[in-house]
Each structure stands twice: as structure tokens, then as C-alpha cells.
């Protein structure tokens, strides 16, 4: 009996040792070094949440940050390190570009016809692209910086595919890398992730503002948009990024070769099937939309008092996001006069001259704790520009929306929410006070908006693992395994005609045609011979 | 101060209430009623694991079981309920079919040339298909049974897409349903899940035994296999299932319409990227391969003593699965004589006449605790037929394999493991004792096999949520939300030419052609007019 006991114990212990041997390779507690190519605007706000979580789990996070930046900064309490490098562009130039481009995107572009609209958009994007190339060039040609990065032996590089350079750094430093990504115009970059994942027949591409249920004409529109953006992407890269990447790497390089999943180990897409329409995807892509959302914290005293003073009517939260601070006077007055007529109290994030029509029920704030306000039980509606971060906070807390989209993905975000019955959409430049007032009354009084956004909220909350935990898991996975090769499709090794099996189909057709030809020839020869023999016989 | 405290408290409490309101809709603790369409063979062994877990979490699980069955049974301790219905086929007939079909699949088919091989396979599958139709017919035409099921108001129906009928039941009872699935010949059923998810250029279809890295000729083979199985599937269904389903539902129905994801709410695929090559997938598909695996338990005393007696050399585990119990004498002797020559002790699951060449190092068992043996630290190698359940246990515990595949998916399973460097493949009918002996020595002595299978094991273990937990999560999700509509692609509403945008491309070509035609016509008319005017002028 004793012998058996020891035998079993030793068996168990060896089993434990084997498990330890296995688990040592994927111990989630081990810490790594993460290099981050910095992003800007709301992209940085979102990425910072991942970085903070990584540092809290003991990882060392270093953000490569140009000496001049609009958004990138760490809190004093944060453990995120910043590696700064000098930039050849002045802060004043960047501020000017931001101000001018917002003016074009918000006020000028919407008044233009289709082609002019997109040529103006192309121009703005081209200017940003120039800046991004400059930043990237200043980093990778900085010998001291690059030598330091080489020495630091990072475990993974993290970047946003919207801001090129991360993939170039990964190529130079020969490190595994992970993308965090919201979108590219027309989903051009996403398509390089490998294959027929955006069939234009039922996957509405971004900027088309369509749903997954398209009429024939809408499918024509979707395909034309796809072709247009593909062409534009090629044009933009051909001129600039391909040349630049080739120059740096010393060999003929196309940026799309670095975008493909053959290079990126994992893609963290900042949406989910609550907001997006379902589409095919690949094993090294995960949808982590709303990763920055968390339960609401208590509000500052003054704000809480104001919110409580709304009584049964509750409050409306209004923000046009972190980029657009000021509005022109005319638009501000149109909005303020509508807000003045509702029984709710309004908290408006606004940084400009106080509108003349502002009602006593509306308070202006240069900054609001948006997530906490949306999670407040008194909040009845959210007036939003439709930025992805903001609408995910509204979905998380189940607050119906009025969308006043301004540019880029905001138009599609609001379209999707409108189609799903969780928002009303208004046009920023043409809406009147009455339009906004009617929309507010409808969203607050018609229970369907609340029901629909609660449905999206349930979908959002009901996932096997929370989005932020999944994002961190996959970054840690790539560090632990030095990549995620087993998740990458082999599509990247194929040319487009091989991918669609056109060479194989061509070969099979040739085979069939050859057989038919030979059989026909033989038949004809036989018939001719038969005819000749017949004639001969007749002649005899 | 006190007022603020209470205000904050009330805010917090209302926030908690809102969260409760949200969470009540997705409380994972609530219990539901699951109806299961029973499966057979290893499919049942795997499904039973999910069902046991569901009962342990408090759900009521009812398995629809024909009065005669080969595998379906519950343990005495199990809380799974069985709803039996009379079957018009005898147990003897089923046993005979099983014996005969195994003889054809294992001994006769491999000797045949390609076309004969598949026509024999088609014949066997056709016989099973007849039996399955009979079982399905006996269930759905049993009025008492169907009335009872209608009354029972189940929350979800679970079935294996390999054994048709679950989708028909879901259609009749109008309930959400979930598939658990390993494969269909040529991946024909999986393709109905919605779209271009199996591009034959880099996704090797099952039965092709190819990898994701294919030469041109291999891609030709893969495409031909795909066409062949598509054709076969159409033929099989046209004759039988389409007619039967149309008869039952009273309207023209194609079985593939019920297979599509437009009907199934979720698909639980019993593989993962450790075994499979990565390929596109859809949001309502999850890969839960190895869900039945668990840490090893201690062995029975006699077995543990035998294992321990192997000393440093360790043991080899040998099983050809739950279906094939006996081998013919010649094959059994070839195997036994090879096993007799290795220094390891061997535990062989074998139910037949003891082979004459059996060595003293080999013990025969009618049944072995396979998972526990593979998890034993003394186990050096696993000789397997390559059934999915068995190889997942070997991957889970990191044991290199010698694959002797017999039929269906076993050939591809072993091919995949061979390509990934974790197994050696032998041919059951032609291998000699020397072949088996050399393979055993190589797998045990060459460390690369162990390293490769440990790599697969690390991939298998390193997932955000364990496969069984994910499987149960999604079944519970479908119960909580009465389906999973938000995860279903809109591809199902399109015809194939709409899906590939052929109508749109055709329309755009017509537009372009019309414009070219009009412009050309105008130019020609203008030239003609110009020429005439010129002549006139000359004439003047």
C-alpha cells in the first residue's frame, strides 16, 4: 500500500514537473519590454489605456515620442516611459495644420459635391501623410536613437496602422509586432490583412455609410467606393511611402508588404459586433472595441449637484470630442437655442465664446468626465460627433445618442448606430434648432432608442473575456511566443491570381480544351478518311 | 458635506441598479433547457463532455436518443436526461453495418485506385446516410414525441452537423440552435457557413491531406478535390435529404439552406490552430478543439505498476480508437513483433486474439484511460489512428505520435501533425515490423518530435479562455439572447453571383461599354459628316 502511495506521489510529482515544463513557456506572469510607436488624437487616448494596463501588469513600456506632439503625454503617476527624439517640424506648424484641416473637414468639405469633397479630403490626408513621413524619417535616421533601440532588445513593437512607421521599425529591429487599429479610408489597409475579407456585396466599406443589407444600387456604390479608395491608396503610397521605405530598407519595398499579416503578428481592431456588421476575419485578428470603458466613478461635487438638480427629467451630455474644441458662432447659437428648450439639464463640452442663446439649463465645460457622466443614472441622452471612443462609452452604459458626425469614421459610426436603432443622425452644417430639438425629444421619449442601445450594451458586455484583457493577452502572447506565426494565413505568399486560383482554373481549362480539340480533330480526320474511302469505293 | 455624501450614495446606488438592469439580461448564472440531437462514435464522446459541463452548471439537458444506438449512453452519476424514441432499424443491422463498413474502410478501400476508392467511400457514406435519414424520420414523424418537445419549450437545440436532423428539429420547433462540428468530406458543409472561407489556393480541404503551403500541382489537386466533393454533396442531398426535408416542412427545402449560418446561431468547431492551418472564419464560429482534455488522473494500480516497471525507458501507448477494436491476425502480428523489439513497455488497447509475436514488454487492454496515460510522465510516444479526440489528448500532454490513419479525417489529422513535425506517418496496410520499429526509435530518440509537439501544446494551452468554457459560454449566450443574430453575416441573403458582385460588375461593364459605344458612334458620325463636307467642298 505504501509502495503504491509513493509510486502515485512520484507519478503526480513528475506530472506536475511536466506541467511546469509546459507552463514555463507560457507563464502569463513573466514581464517583457514593449516599444510603442506613438499615435495622435483619439488613437493615443485609446492606446494609452492598453499601455497603462501593460505597465500595471509589470511590463516595461517605452513610447517613441517626437519632441513636438499634440496629444502624446503621460500622467505623472504613470509608469510609461517616453523616449523623445527631435522633430524637424515645429509645434506651431502642427497646431496650424490641425486648425486648418478641422476647418476644411468640418465646414468646407460638406458643402462640396462628391468629387470635390474627396479631392479636398485627399489633400488634407496628404498633408498629414507628409508630417507622418517626416516624423518617421526623423526617428529611423536618428542613429543615436536607433542604436539605443537596438541595444534595448524589446520583446514586441506596438503601433497603430493608421500612423505608419511601426512596421518599418519592426522590420529594422527584427521584432514581432502588434497593431492596434480602428480603420483606414475604404478599409484599404485592412484588406492587406489577407484575402477576400471585405466582399463588397455585403461588407459596407468605411466611408460608404451603408449597412450590410444593400440594394443593387448601394452595392454598386460600395464597389465604386472600394475601387476609388484602392486607387487612392496606391497613388498615395506610390509617391511617398514606397519610395521612403525602399530608401530606408535599401531594397524595393511596398508599404503594403509590411502592412500584411505576413509581417504583423496580431491585429487588435477597436470595434466589435455591437457596432460593426459581421464580416469574415482571420485567426490573428481580435475585435476589442470599447477596451477603454469602465464602470462610472463619482462626479466632481459641482457637476454632481448640477446633475441632481435636473430631477426626474435627467440630463443630456454633449461633446464634439477632443479635436474640435470651438464651433463657429452661428452653429453654436443654433445648438444652444435648441438645448435651451428641453426640460433636461445639459452638460456641454465647449471651449469658445459663450453662445448668446444659451439657456439657464445648459452649462459649458472645457472638459467633462465623459464616461462617468454617461454612466450616471440621470443621463438620458448623449449628443456626440460619433468618435469611436465616445460611442463605445455610450454603448457600454446604454445611453441613446444623437449623432452629429463631423469627419472620417464618425459618419459611418453614426450610420451604423442609426441603422441599429440606437441613434438619430443630424447634419452639422444644415441642422436647425428645431431639428435638434425634435431629435432630442424623440430619442428621450421614444423607448425604442433606449431598448436598442441596451441590446447593443448587452452584446458588448456579454463576451467570454473583456476587450482590454484580450488586447493585453495577445500582446503578452506575442511576447511569450516571439510572434504568432501559427495564426497567420498562407495567403500572403500568393500573388492575387494565385490567391483566386486563376492559374489553376486556366490550366484546367487548357487541359479540357486540349482534350476537346484532340477528340474533335480525331473525329474530323476519321470522318474525312471515311468520306474519302466512301468516294473511292463509289469511284471503283 | 452630509448632503453630498447622500447624493453620492444615491447616485452610486442608482448606478448599481442600472448595472443590475443591464446584467440581468446576461446573467451567466441563469439556467436553461437544452435539447440535443444525439450523435454516434467519437462525436458522442466529445459532445458528452459539453453536456456534462452544462448539467454541472445547472442546465437541464435532454438527449433525443433512438431506441437502438451504438454509443449514446449516460453514466449512472450523470444528470443528462434521455428521451428515447422507437427506431425502425434493428440493433443487429446497425452492428452489421458498422462491422462491414470498418472492414471496407480499413482493409479494402486503401487497396483501390483513386476513383474506385472514392466510389466505395461514397457507398459506405450512402449507407450511413440512409440510416441517419431513418432515425430522423422516426423522430420527426413521431407525433407523441414532437408534441412533448413542443411543450417542453427548450431554450436551445444542440447537434452535430455531421449527423443531420438537428437543423430540421430547430426549424420545426422554431428554436435557436448551435452546432458542434469536426468536419464534412471536402468541407462541403463548412462552406455553407457563408462565403469564400476556404480559398482552395491556401486552405487545404479535408481529405486532400495537403498543407497550407501548396505547389502548383497540389493547388490543382486541392481544387479538383473541392469540385469533386461539392458535386458529390449535391448528388447525395438531391436524392435524399432535400426530398425528405421538403416532405417534412411542406415546402421546397434544400438541406444546405438549413446548414447555413443564416439558420445556425453558432458553430463550435472541434479543432484549433495547433492542429489546423489558419484560414478565414466568421464571428459566429469558435474553434474549441481539445475541449475534452483535462489534467491526468492517477492510473489503476496494476497499470501504474506496469508503467513504473519501465524504468528510464518509459512507455509507449497504443490505440486505434473506439471504433476499431480488432485487427486481422497478420497486421496484429506485424505490429506486435515490432513492439517486442523496443526497450519501452507498451500498453496496447486491443480486443482480439492475442498475437503470436507479442513480446513480454507489451500488455493488451480492452480499454485504457488514454488521456491519463498520455499525461503520465513515463509516456514517450503514442501510436494512434489519428482520431481527433486522441491526438488532442497527445497535444494537450505534449506526446509525440506515430500515426497509422485508417479512415476519414484521421488521414488529414496525421498529415497535419507530420507537416508540423510532431508525428511520423505509417500506412496501416503496407507497413512492415521494421517500418514501425524505425518510426518508434526515431520518434523517441530524435528530440525534434518532442520539441514540436511541445510547441503545439504551448499554443493549445495558451488561449484566453479554455475550449470547454468557450463552448459552454456560447451555448449559454444563445440561450440568454435567444440566438446570436448580431454575429451572422448577411452573405446568406445573396445568390452566388450577387455574393461575388458579378451583377454589379456586369452592370458597370455595360455602362462603360455603352459610353464607349456612344462616343465611338458620335466620333464616326462626326468623321463621316466631316468627310462628306470635305468632298462636297472639293466638288464645289
Automatic annotation (TrEMBL), chains A, B:
InterPro entries: UDP-glycosyltransferase, UDP_glucos_trans, UDP_glycos_trans_CS. Belongs to the UDP-glycosyltransferase family. Its main location: endoplasmic reticulum. This is glucuronosyltransferase. Residues 1-31 form the signal peptide. GO terms for molecular function: glucuronosyltransferase activity. PANTHER family: EG:EG0003.4 PROTEIN-RELATED, UDP-GLUCURONOSYLTRANSFERASE 2B4. It is a single-pass membrane protein.
